[in-house]
């Protein structure tokens, strides 16, 4: 079976350590390499089901006395895992593709935005590589637009063509994203030539943009993560 061996290791480790899914180790690796979440951070987790990233994000906030917040949004209703999570974690059942940016910002501390935005959103896979990559890109662009706002939209209009949704709606932006200046953004994508295009868009918006294929990714998967660190002042927040 493709991906046998290593996936079994991460599955067993997730069970042993109390994580609800093996995907916890992807964010744990990002944390170790990039230190995206610091004690007291405010974290927005897009596509948070089944909750493994909520667990890692909460752990990364440090002790309860340090404060901080983790908000997960998903199409599915997600119960906050009992292990590795505390009262700082909450979830919202909603379609982030249709959720107004202002409503998302209201979920942040003092409604001033989040210091970290994580997007592990993934489309329903059809098995048609080009179609799946395009749908993944659409979700990635939406996450970028939600995080950065008008600055990202201006770049996206020049660099990436996005299709209208079934109801005829297009991605609409106001001037302000929900990611604070200096904040970090993680976007899951499916490998295609468009990955480099969205990477090019992010480079001038952030202090650093990197691509990572975590060790816990199944060998049969084409997923890759775009990790953006330090939102620049030119992207208005």
How far is the first residue's CA from the last residue's CA?
47 Å
- Element string (H = helix, E = strand): HHEHEEHEHHEHEE
Task: Give the integer mean of the pLDDT values.
Answer: 87
CATH superfamily: Vaccinia Virus protein VP39
CATH architecture annotation name: 3-Layer(aba) Sandwich
Q: What fold name stands as the CATH topology?
A: Rossmann fold
Overall strand count? 7
Arrangement of strands in the largest sheet: 3-2-1-4-5-7-6
Radius of gyration: 17 Å
Oligomer classification = single chain
Helix content: 25-40%
Whole-number total of structural domains: 1
Helix-and-strand structural type: alpha/beta
How many helices in DSSP terms?
Answer: 7
Shape: globular
Range of strand content: 15-25%
Low-confidence parts: 1-7, 160-174
Reported for the largest beta sheet, the result is: 7 strands, mixed
Q: What is the CATH C-level name?
A: Alpha Beta
Write the layout of secondary structure elements.
Elements: H1 6-17, H2 24-34, E1 42-46, H3 52-60, E2 69-74, E3 89-93, H4 101-105, E4 114-119, H5 129-148, H6 150-159, E5 179-190, H7 194-205, E6 206-212, E7 223-231
Parallel strand pairs: 1-2, 1-4, 2-3, 4-5
Antiparallel strand pairs: 5-7, 6-7
Helix pairs in contact: 2-3, 5-6, 5-7, 6-7
Keywords: Methyltransferase, rRNA processing, S-adenosyl-L-methionine, Transferase
Domain Ribosomal RNA methyltransferase FtsJ: 19-230
InterPro entries: RNA_methyltr_RlmE, RNA_MeTrfase_FtsJ_dom, rRNA-MeTfrase_E, SAM-dependent_MTases_sf
């Amino acid at each position: 079976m493709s991906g046998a061996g290593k996936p079994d290791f991460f599955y067993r480790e997730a069970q042993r350590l109390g994580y609800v899914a093996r995907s916890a180790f992807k964010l744990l690796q990002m944390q170790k390499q990039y230190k995206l979440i610091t004690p007291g951070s405010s974290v927005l987790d897009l596509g948070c089901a089944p909750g493994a990233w909520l667990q890692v994000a909460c752990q990364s906030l440090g002790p309860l006395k340090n404060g901080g917040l983790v908000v997960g949004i998903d199409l599915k209703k997600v119960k906050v895992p009992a292990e590795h999570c505390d009262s700082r974690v909450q979830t919202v059942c909603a379609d982030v593709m249709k959720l107004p940016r202002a409503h998302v910002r209201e979920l942040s501390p003092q409604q001033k935005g989040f210091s970290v935005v994580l997007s592990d959103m993934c489309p329903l896979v059809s098995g048609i590589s080009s179609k799946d990559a395009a749908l993944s890109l659409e979700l990635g662009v939406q996450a970028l637009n939600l995080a950065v706002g008008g600055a990202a939209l201006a770049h996206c209009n020049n660099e990436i063509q996005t299709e209208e949704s079934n109801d005829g709606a297009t991605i609409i932006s106001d001037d302000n994203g929900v990611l604070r200046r200096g904040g970090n953004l993680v976007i899951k994508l499916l490998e295609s030539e468009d990955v480099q295009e969205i990477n090019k868009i992010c480079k001038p918006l952030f202090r650093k943009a990197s691509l990572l294929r975590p060790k816990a990714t199944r060998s049969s998967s084409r997923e890759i993560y775009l990790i953006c660190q330090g939102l620049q002042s030119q992207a208005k927040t």
